[in-house]
Amino acid sequence: MKKLFSLMLTAFVIGNVSAQAVTKLNGAGASFPYAIYSKWFSEYSKENKDVRINYQPIGSGGGIRQLIKQTVDFGASDAPMKSKDMKKAAWPVMHVPTVLGAVALAYNQPGVDANLKLDGEVLSNIFLGKITKWNDTAIAKLNPSMKLPAKDILIVRRADGSGTTKVFSEYLSAASAEWKNKVGIGKSLRWPTGIGAKGNDGVTAIIKQTEGAIGYIDLAHAVKNKLSTVALKNKSGEFVAPTVESISKSAAYFKTSGTDFTASLIDQPGKGVYPVSAFTYILLPVYKKNQKLSEIHKFINWALTDGQKMAADLFYAPLPDSLRKNILKEISKL
Amino acid sequence: MVEMVSKDNIENNTSSPLKKRGISYKQQDKIAFMILRGFALAIVLLLGLMIYQLFQASAPAIKEFGFSFIYNDFWNPIEDEFGALPFIYGTLVTSLIAILIAAPVSIAIALFINEYLPKALGNLLGLFVELISAIPSIIFGLWGLYYLAPWVKDSLTPILKSTLGFLPLFSGPSFGIGILTASIILSIMIIPTITSVCREVFKVVPSLQKEAALALGATKFEAIKLAILKPSFSGVMGAVVLGLGRALGETMAVAMVIGNSAEISKSLFGAGATMASVMANEYAEADSEIHLSALCLIGLLLFVVTFFVNFFARSITWKAKMRGKKV
Fold first, then answer.
1. What are phi and psi of A98, to 5 degrees?
2. Is B223 in the same domain as B261?
3. What is the pLDDT of residues A195-227, one digit of tens each?
4. Under an 8 A CB cutoff, do A196 and B259 touch?
5. Is A62 at the interface with chain B, CB within 8 A?
6. CATH of domain A102-249
7. What's the pTM value of the predicted model, to 2 decimals?
8. Separation CA A265–CA A293 (nearest Å)
């Protein structure tokens, strides 16, 4: 009995020692980049066996709250932290863009081919409930070559609070004064019309099984489910479909200053730019470097170099090179 | 007195295992009582603590909106203006329809199993019914979204429209997602609860009464009506109350099929939202203080609504019991 006990004790001690050699990092936040982040974390752990990163996709708001409470080592968010939240944190927080995402408008209306052309004005009128038929003159004017059916439009939107909703409403507000006054920008909105579904999966499911439906989802869901997407008019007057390239381009002309990399990428000027794109950020606390923090820095360095190549396969857009180098330079100064 | 003496005798007996450890019977009783009381009190304390914390978390919203929170029918997270009426309406309507569907079906299942089927077969069927309650609600939600909603849109809606289409309840377009689909899902989810409680209730009705009814020349159906259903009315109501409790609080499955629209729709085909579904949907990403607080206040209101609905249903049971005693 005594022998067994001492054996167990030794095993426990040894187990503990080897466990201590592995650095465990905890992060929490946005669910939008979860697919690429979990891929990154597992690949990174394969290359660096002494680091384990655990990430909880509890939503941007939850990630910010947990970071402020210091229950996680880093946070992640689709929207930049509000200055009020920044003040609550014990240290400055740097926003590190990791990849770009876009909001795709997917629809299911037999007779309407892929790449239906729309501009911000018409789109906001659809989501305001002012345009209710697929063959409305405003839509027909932008698509003279298409024969549009006289069917009802069903708006499908997110029911849960979401960064995707925020980016989309930002675009609609920029395009339409009426949207800005009546609805506004936010993660949850007071929608004028339509039905709400839970998550990108829920919206996708309803679009897929309901003729006449249109809704906004992330690019990965649109491509994987082979849904038709809208080509949106950008600042240069081109109609651009959401692709990894056109999303990447939306950050190509982005000017940075210092360590502030937060910016809205809505309706950026430039050729081939998709107008409804956004950064997603890792929220990096800035304090006196300890072992954990330097491991996070190492990971971010890896994610912004080797990791970027994995983004396109999962339908996230990699950061443009110039921006990437800029971020790496600023992080190395910390 | 005799007992006391015999107890003392045993306590003096050194071979008693309890005595060996120095615990007397009196102490043993006392300890058991303390432990049981502790557990029972812990539950009461826990409930009290939950209500207290919900109250605290919703204090800013109570201060800001007061009673208008209950009757305001808008929900605008951007302007930070909140009213819970659409959610209270959605919760009550979906639960009511679910009960209207589930109660008769469950009572029929329970009667069939108890009165018509041979015992072994009845137990097997009973097991199947109870298995339904073991299905996680997310599965119900997914099934509702992918199969039930299209069925409601393509098959059920045309039937309802052609027969009852003149009622405002069945007007307007149906996309499959909406109050009706949510209610149907809920009714399926609460059938096992009501059925199994009903079966227990029917079992305890004295079989003498049924036999007497049969002996007087009643048909089997009449015997069931007179000798089983009538005397067990209050028990059946209790079963319905349990089912109702589950329907009021059900979250995930409802959130996936109700359409999540903060509006009061006259038509059952329209989209709605329940108190539980709006909390589940918006809590994670709510970033203003008052938004979070308003969601907590909805949680508190759900407590109140559940309490009142239960109270109302129970008062029917009590009345029935009283009437039964007078007769």
1. -110, -50
2. yes
3. 999 888 889 999 999 999 999 999 989 999 999
4. yes
5. yes
6. 3.40.190.10
7. 0.81
8. 29
